[in-house]
Design a protein that fits this description.
Blueprint (H helix, E strand, L loop, with lengths): L6 E14 L2 E14 L3 E5 L6 H8 L7 E6 L2 E2 L5 H10 L1 E4 L11 H6 L8 H14 L15 H13 L5 E5 L7 H17 L3 E5 L3 H6 L2 E6 L2 E6 L3
Parallel strand pairs: 3-8, 3-9, 6-7, 7-8
Antiparallel strand pairs: 1-2, 1-4, 4-5, 9-10
Length: 232
């Protein structure tokens, strides 16, 4: 484990609410949090307590109403949307419950999509091939999503999340649509990538296996952190 002073994500006083017709719903209610570089952290809690909202805030997919977020020591609030988009593209990878692959493109083409904005084509394709081999799909490069199993589709989504060599991967219930065997395989893959690529993992999950493997467990309830098991 890296030096505990190397903070990948720092959040101070986060609040987020949404207008739902006649009333405002407070979802995140004053969260302070730090995620250490290279650790495996999980966010736990019942449905509707703000887990996905917190992940979206930390991943810069949404903006807090109040509070600060630092990614690798950089204050995100000070950045314009263009610079935030670049950080999302190059520093943070995302894996969701639904793989969100584009059906008309092959596995390789889907993985290459995040590279199109900033990377050179040749080097990006070489690394995409390497990543697809790392996730065990070198034999399925040119298959389209409909030709892949659910587990294979989610592995393509993982490869797409890491193709730009991010420091951080955020995953929101990544095994929610997989059976037990494929879910276990995906979690083992994420843990392997954490070690081999020195990735920081922050995962929203109800999966006990993943929680047991994490060294930082965050429990949410009613928009607040109610318990934490910190890295030893």
């Amino acid at each position: 484990m890296n030096n505990k002073n190397e903070i990948a994500i720092l959040a101070n006083g986060l609040y987020k609410s949404y207008d739902t017709g006649p009333q405002k719903v407070d979802v995140i209610k004053g969260i302070d949090l730090q995620i250490i570089k290279s650790e495996v952290a999980t966010i736990m809690g019942p449905s509707g307590v703000g887990k996905s909202t917190l992940l979206h805030l930390l991943g810069l997919l949404d903006n807090p109403d109040k509070g600060e977020i630092f990614i690798g020591g950089q204050n995100i609030a000070a950045l314009d949307e263009k610079k935030k988009a670049k950080i999302r593209n190059q520093t943070i990878g995302f894996v969701f419950q639904f793989h969100h692959l584009l059906p008309e493109f092959s596995a390789l083409e889907n993985v290459l999509i995040p590279t199109m904005m900033y990377n050179g084509k040749k080097s990006a394709e070489e690394y995409a091939l390497h990543i697809l081999d790392l996730v065990g799909l070198s034999h399925r490069l040119h298959h389209k999503p409909r030709e892949l199993s659910g587990g294979e589709q989610q592995r393509v989504a993982v490869a797409r999340a890491i193709v730009n060599k991010p420091h951080i991967v955020l995953a929101d219930e990544p095994t929610g649509n997989l059976d037990k065997r494929n879910g276990e395989a995906l979690y083992n893959l994420l843990l392997k990538l954490n070690k081999e690529l020195d990735l920081t993992l922050l995962i929203v999950t109800h999966n006990e296996q993943m929680t047991a493997a994490a060294n930082h467990i965050i429990e949410l309830d009613d928009g607040k952190i109610v318990a934490q098991k910190m890295p030893s």
